[in-house]
Amino acid sequence: MELTTVPEFPKILERFEAWWQCEIIDRPLVSLSAARQREPRNKPPERTYPTLRDRWLDVEYQLDCTEANLDGRVFVGDTFPSYDPGVGPEICATCYGCELEFSPGTTWAIPIVQTCQDVLKLTCDLNAFYWNWLRASTDASLERGRGKWITGLTDMHTNGDLLASLLDPQQLALLYADDPKGIDAACDHVRDDFALMYDDIYDRIAAAGQPSTSWTPTLYAGKSFVLQCDFICMISPADFQRTILPMLDYEIAHLERSIYHLDGPGALVHLDALLETDLNAIQWVFGAGQGNARDWIDVYKRIQAAGKGVQIFADDFAEAKLLAEHLKPEGVWLCMGKQFQPDEADAILNWAQRWAAGME
């Protein structure tokens, strides 16, 4: 596949495949934000909406905003233009009957049940309103973005996060203490629906000849996804391994490539269990107020020692070079946190190639 905005896109796809395998073609992955070449030629039209929900659901407006944002941007390193349609990460809960609460920047599902037994009465309906909207939005993006951007899979909170959406996170945590057998049954009940939902959107993207990507801009020619369960910071390692891990194992097995979004220090107690799975990579997000990437070198080293790839968010070039002193270039994906001028970006990419060649 080719993109008019990124002539080197086929090479980027190759580098990502090497990264998934903890290998290197010419250098590790480096994602950079470059200074805009020029201001967009067209800006989205000014529109007013009766409600936030109406604004969120205006597919053409969302695509206008995407096109304006991408116009004039320079894509360097392993960065590429993409757009993943969505109405927030809890859209999967709407297939079971939840409504969404809309805010300017995100949405969340309004819980509809109180017990695990109630969960067992729910079924996943992909003809629900918001899922049909997602289908139409994905199709529209594939058509309008042909040759210009990659259409990604929407953010999907499945497994334990899906149960937290249906029940409310606090209620789910209480049920872990009050009804552990019910929790086991609820997990089994929703587990297989991941494949149903994932394939419904992935098949559209694959039919258009595009690789898979998502809100974390990985690339793969087949089935890939960023998996997550933010709820795990509220449960013990034993509960995680009994209830959440089997659902994650099912999701991993359904995919060909997978990266796990490990969110916050409270989730680190589950890292060893995750490293024993067939995940390809870990995205470690330490969060605001938790230091910098350089403060978590031991975590990155644990991930590499387990044979997994790692996505690292480095503040700047100096931090990237410091991290390189402690890590192997194989399996590293550096995501740089500031905007760079073209000469700065070239210097970083040249350094990454020297690092891979053992010259740094």
Shape: globular
Tell me the domain tally: 2
CATH topology of the largest domain: TIM Barrel
Q: Nearest-angstrom radius of gyration?
A: 21 Å
Report the uncertain regions: none
Describe the strand arrangement of the main beta sheet, using strand numbers: 1-10-9-8-7-6
Distance between the termini: 34 Å
Helix content, binned percent: 40-55%
Global structural class: alpha/beta
Number of strands: 10
Average the pLDDT over all residues and give the rounded result. Answer: 96
Return the string of H and E elements: HEHHEHEEHHEHHHHEHEHEHEHEH
Main β-sheet, in a few words? 6 strands, parallel
CATH class of the largest domain: Alpha Beta
Q: How many helical stretches?
A: 15
**Proportion of residues in extended strands:** 5-15%
The CATH architecture assignment of the largest domain turns out to be: Alpha-Beta Barrel
InterPro entries: UROD/MetE-like_sf
Protein name: Trimethylamine corrinoid protein 2
Brief rundown of the structure:
By secondary structure, this protein is α/β, with parallel strands linked by helices. It folds into 2 domains: 14-35 and 260-360, FAD/NAD(P)-binding domain (3-Layer(bba) Sandwich); 48-73 and 81-216 and 221-255, TIM Barrel, CATH 3.20.20.
Explain what this protein looks like in three dimensions.
This is Trimethylamine corrinoid protein 2. It comes from marine sediment metagenome. This protein is α/β, with parallel strands linked by helices and 360 residues long. The chain is 43% helix and 13% strand. The strands form 3 sheets. A 6-stranded parallel beta sheet has the order 1-10-9-8-7-6. Strands 2-5 form a two-stranded parallel ribbon. The longest helix is centred in the last third of the chain and has 18 residues. The protein is globular and about 60 Å long. The two termini are 34 Å apart.
